[in-house]
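P.,

For your records, the input lines for the assembly:
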Amino acid sequence: KQEVTQIPAALSVPEGENLVLNCSFTDSAIYNLQWFRQDPGKGLTSLLLIQSSQREQTSGRLNASLDKSSGRSTLYIAASQPGDSATYLCAVKSAAGGTSYGKLTFGQGTILTVHP
Amino acid sequence: AAGVIQSPRHLIKEKRETATLKCYPIPRHDTVYWYQQGPGQDPQFLISFYEKMQSDKGSIPDRFSAQQFSDYHSELNMSSLELGDSALYFCASSLGSGAGDTQYFGPGTRLTVL
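Structure tokens returned:
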């Protein structure tokens, strides 16, 4: 059974800092990994998707890397802003088992606070 | 760009009542997923459909059922509601379910069971 863990559970940084969020997963047989942002009580916004054959993806100030063999991904946020404050979730789409493909298994999330 | 539409956005029910949640995927998307997110929890996969057929099943209670219709919209039917069913229910859609297929999430339906 795939398990996804995110570290740290919460992070508070001053505006302008670069930061790294970590995600690890137990089963390396994955199709892809997605990073999401969730504001309190709101929906999930997809930030980046990394396919299992890729090493990283970039979008603006965000860069996500994937090391499938070690079961790790990082989300790097450059020059953080107060508007980046949210919960960041990583989720993996497992390839193992055949019948389980398609669904996402989520981590518990990292609550990020960027203060002015 | 069109997004995933969920209705209703908020729903309040009494214990033992029934509820129906609706999901309208992004046009041309053929795969729909349902997730449940309890307070302070991460989203948990319930069930998915590909081309109107159930493709995978997660931790969905027997009291719940779902289907995908010919126009690709999906409905999650919940019966004999319990207090523990109070959660945010997300629908997501994708075009196919391969490695490069991003799942796009709707805004969610917040169900409160009193």
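Two observations worth noting. The radius of gyration of chain B is 13 Å. Chain B has a mean pLDDT of 93.

Regards
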